[in-house]
Amino acid sequence: MSTFDPNKLSVEFKSGVTPTEPIIPRLYTLTHSDITAELFLTIAPYYDFDKLTLMRDEVLCRWIKTPIGYYFYVQLHLDSETGNPSTEIRNSIFVRELPLALQAIRYGDRYFFDAHTKLDGAPIIVYFHSEDANYNRVENWGTFSDYTL
């Protein structure tokens, strides 16, 4: 896993969200630059589709409320639109780098977590989307308390 550097994170709040509100709808689009290793986090009431590329290496997340509480839902697309690299390699990269992505989201939205401390204990559910049944799966990745700096 790469080491998270807060200095390489840019956070943008779009109209409809503030650094502390609302919980729903609050959607996250995390992208990065392979060249500079910078991370770009958009927090909005929608996904920032303008930031997506054919590589589909973004991390898309949102809060979901159930009768028993909130959980954080993460979507990862393992099948590249371009076919390169392979689903197997993309899976390895996502698994290796997801802790860094979760640290970046937790740090980038730290004032939100300060205002809603119970959300640090909400489960993080990750959906690995793939056409290949060997990689298409849902996993529990702990809570944000596991990803604080």
Automatic annotation (TrEMBL):
Keywords: Transit peptide. It comes from the Bacteria. Residues 3-147 form the Staygreen protein domain. Pfam families: Staygreen. InterPro entries: Staygreen (IPR024438). PANTHER family: LP06106P, PROTEIN STAY-GREEN 1, CHLOROPLASTIC-RELATED. This is Staygreen protein. It comes from Clostridium oryzae.
